[in-house]
Amino acid sequence: MILREKHNLTHQLTHDLGMEIVKGRYSVGSGLPSEAELCSIYSVSRSATREAVKMLSAKGLITSRPKQGIRVMPEHNWNLFDTDVLSWILSSKPSIQLLHEFTQMRVAIEPQACALAALQANADQLRNIENALERMRDADNGLDDPLEADIAFHTAILEASCNRFFYQLTNFIATALRVSIRYTNKIKGVPGADVIKHQHILDTIKSRDSDAAYKASKEILDEAIELIESQFIERTTPVPDIQLS
């Protein structure tokens, strides 16, 4: 019980400090309170504080050295593939530029994942994609969550690619999609994704046509890129009224 409580306190402190850092409360190069001060501020033990500092250091947000204290690292040092870091950023008013860069990464990965799925997916993996598409249809009728159904479709394809590196990106992709899909759907003025276009992706995968699967996926992503670019005012424009739940 004591170990579990310490674990929970450590993760809560890691979350709280991580959120404060990405929100800009502590500027790059500035010092955070000392470990002793953090213990007092957050009413946690020294060991829990030390573990939280280690976790944030591993995520690239801070550096902690003897006689130099705890300092915030530049954003380019942050591990954006860490789902905690990504969640903190997306929860603290992400910029359109960030969503644009994320969608660019999807363009580099998901069409290829679709092509690989067309060549390599087994029956169970195809069934998972079909089930996700059925959830999307249900969502159109108010019987499922449109966001979660859409995410399930895209992550099922990553799994069906049979590429272990793509599969490792599943949680990262799902985390960012929870904001980016909401945003692009809001621009289009629709509650959910275009089921017909997603059906076309599934059809090309099931027909084992890797070129067509690649093109079908890229078409949807190119549309998302265009929607995001249409909203550009400046590189740091915040995403309006879209928060990670």
CATH architectural type of the largest domain: Up-down Bundle
| Average pLDDT figure | 89
Structural category: mainly alpha
Under CATH, the topology of the largest domain is which? Four Helix Bundle (Hemerythrin (Met), subunit A)
Tertiary shape: elongated
Name of the top-level CATH class of the largest domain: Mainly Alpha
Main sheet: strand order = 1-2
| Number of DSSP helical runs | 11
- Beta-strand percent range: under 5%
State the helicity in percent bands.
55-70%
* Total number of domains: 2
| Main β-sheet description | 2 strands, antiparallel
Q: Going by CATH, what is the homologous superfamily of the largest domain? A: GntR ligand-binding domain-like
End-to-end Cα distance: 29 Å
Helix-strand pattern, N to C? HHHEEHHHHHHHH
Summarize the structure.
The chain is mainly α and 245 residues long. It has eleven helices and two strands. The model has no long low-confidence stretch (mean pLDDT 89).
